[in-house]
Amino acid sequence: MDLEDAMENWSSVKKFTDREIEEEKLEKIFKLTTNAPTAFNLQSYRFVVLDSEEAMDKAISSAIPVNRWIQYAEKIVVLIGDEEIDVNADQILRHKLEEGKIDDEKAENLREMYERYKNRDSEFVTGWLTRNTMIPATFFMLACRTQGIGSCPVRGFSQGKLSEKLDLKDSERPILLIPIGYPKEEEDREWRRPGKDIFEVR
């Protein structure tokens, strides 16, 4: 399925078959997702794929009762954001320097800017994480769709409980659960507002 079809025919999937997702499809999905944009290209997020029954139970037991259907997914993917928003800065700036895109002075200026953003109030940092993880989440789910894999974004779970179960760093926050698998049946597509009600050209 190409990207246009994936978007045109999007529906969240909550019922899955027992068919295992092929490794090559997972690798393709992972590769496509890494192209997602983030502010300053800081990429302060990661995905954890819960595959074993024991690992998946950590997410299932953290979900609110109405979302316990995630237990039927083939895998549960946890999208994690890091409040240390410059956690990957050294690696990213090194590549920029090696590619000649910036010089040492520019790199230092960028480091100082990242530090200022990181040290802002918690409300700002939380908003930053939300904005900069939702785009990779969307890339991931659309990439799944192009490979024939169903998914559904799930926010109803205890962040604190899941953080503890996954032994995350103090600065890390589980933002979203994304159960994935081959669809058992297509979900009824929900009504969407027409473009004329959403887009305004001035």
List keywords for this structure.
202 residues, NADH Oxidase, 4-stranded antiparallel sheet, 43% helix, 13% strand, globular
Task: Walk me through this protein's architecture.
The protein has helices at 3-8, 23-33, 53-60, 89-98, 104-118, 122-146, 159-165, 195-198, and strands at residues 45-50, 75-82, 150-151, 172-181. With 202 residues, the protein is of the alpha+beta class. It has a single domain (3-187), classed as 3-Layer(aba) Sandwich (NADH Oxidase). The two termini are 35 Å apart. The model has no long low-confidence stretch (mean pLDDT 94).
- The global form is globular
Strand order of the largest sheet: 1-2-4-3
Note the beta-strand portion. 5-15%
Largest sheet, if any? Answer: 4 strands, antiparallel
Number of structural domains: 1
Average of pLDDT? 94
How many H/I helical runs? 8
> pLDDT below 50 for ≥5 consecutive residues: which ranges?
none
Rg from alpha-carbon coordinates: 19 Å
Secondary structural class = alpha+beta
Query: Could you name the CATH class?
Result: Alpha Beta
